[in-house]
Design a protein that fits this description.
Elements (H helix, E strand, L loop, with lengths): L1 H19 L7 E2 L11 E5 L4 E6 L2 E9 L19 E11 L3 E6 L4 H12 L14 E4 L6 H4 L9 E3 L1 H10 L5 E5 L1
Length: 183
């Protein structure tokens, strides 16, 4: 009995200590001035779990993000929960009924379709696989911002930003903005 009590005490202590080291990942902005030109572009770096915004003056802001699968390699087919690598454009801004602000990307584009067909030909993916669609940059649900703080990938292949921070990003990113998603 004493061993169990001792073990429970140690586990409780370790859990409390881990919460004391918990830190929230939040937006970092280089300058407080609003973006004033149309040269804005976005780079999503999957290895750093970051979405960075740039304009003609350089780096503007960094947002912490999460993705679909723990496997952050390139998307192969619909349903694999991976986030695609490549160059895209934002084609639609909308408010999603579950996670609010959303920036829809033009996935799949010509490059994605070519690569998908090559992978099918080389039998890297099932012959019945579909390429998928609907990849976006969107918010977490309002009560689930913790997923970003804890690097908890949860989407079906999208890029997810904290709900409160996505409202900021959504406010100044326009349709047509270029987005690069890199490994």
């Amino acid at each position: 009995m004493n061993n169990r009590l001792y073990l429970v005490s140690i586990l409780t202590f370790l859990i409390l200590i881990s919460f004391s080291f918990y830190s929230s990942r939040n937006i970092v902005k280089f300058r407080s001035t609003k973006l004033i030109d149309s040269s804005v572009y976005i780079i999503v770096d999957k290895s750093d779990f970051e979405l960075r915004v740039y304009d003609s003056e350089g780096w503007y802001a960094t947002y912490p993000v999460v993705f679909g699968s723990k496997d952050t390699s390139d998307k192969l087919f619909e349903g694999d929960k991976r986030t695609p690598n490549g160059n895209y454009k934002i084609i639609l801004k909308k408010i999603h009924n579950k996670w609010g602000p959303e920036l829809l990307l033009d996935y799949p584009n010509k490059e994605n379709i070519t690569l998908f067909n090559e992978r099918k030909t080389r039998r890297m993916i099932p012959s019945t696989a579909k390429i998928g669609s609907g990849i976006a940059i969107h918010a977490t649900r309002p009560s689930e911002e913790w997923t970003v703080d804890n690097f908890q990938n949860w989407t079906d292949g999208c890029v997810s930003v904290k709900y409160t921070e996505m409202k900021d990003l959504y406010s100044y990113i326009e349709v047509g903005t270029k987005v690069t998603i890199q490994p």
